[in-house]
Design goal:
Structural class: mainly alpha
Shape: elongated
Largest sheet: none
Low-confidence stretches: none
Radius of gyration: 44 Å
Number of helices: 2
Order of helices and strands: HH
Oligomer: single chain
Helix content: over 70%
């Protein structure tokens, strides 16, 4: 193949691809316009009213769910707080019992020491 024939073939390929893409883009635009032909021309007030009601209902439901969740979290926090206090109370009671036992043991030890010293 001579260089002139190669040049003509490359130009033909590029031109053909360009023309095909132009046709494809034109068909795509026509299909897009045909699909969107009814979407923007008529504004339906019933649609906007229904959309507004849906939005209000959705916001009301969301606020109800948020309040329920916050109440549940608050209850859980309170339960955890009371459990922590109970646990801390039990620990303090145990410490007092251990201290009283150790004091009685010390008293017994000191009594024994006194008896031995005599």
């Amino acid at each position: 193949m001579s260089p002139e024939e190669m040049l003509v073939a490359v130009i033909a390929i590029v031109g053909g691809l360009g023309f095909a893409s132009f046709l494809f883009w034109g068909v795509y635009s026509l299909i897009k316009q045909w699909i969107n032909r009814k979407s923007g021309s008529n504004i339906d007030p019933q649609f906007f009213k229904a959309l507004g009601e849906f939005k209000k209902n959705t916001e009301r439901r969301i606020s109800n769910l948020e309040s329920i969740i916050s109440e549940m979290e608050e209850e859980q926090y309170r339960l955890n707080e009371t459990e922590d206090h109970k646990i801390m109370g039990e620990i303090e009671i145990e410490e007092e019992e251990v201290r009283s036992e150790s004091k009685s043991e010390k008293d017994d030890d000191s009594n024994l020491r006194n008896m031995l010293n005599e």
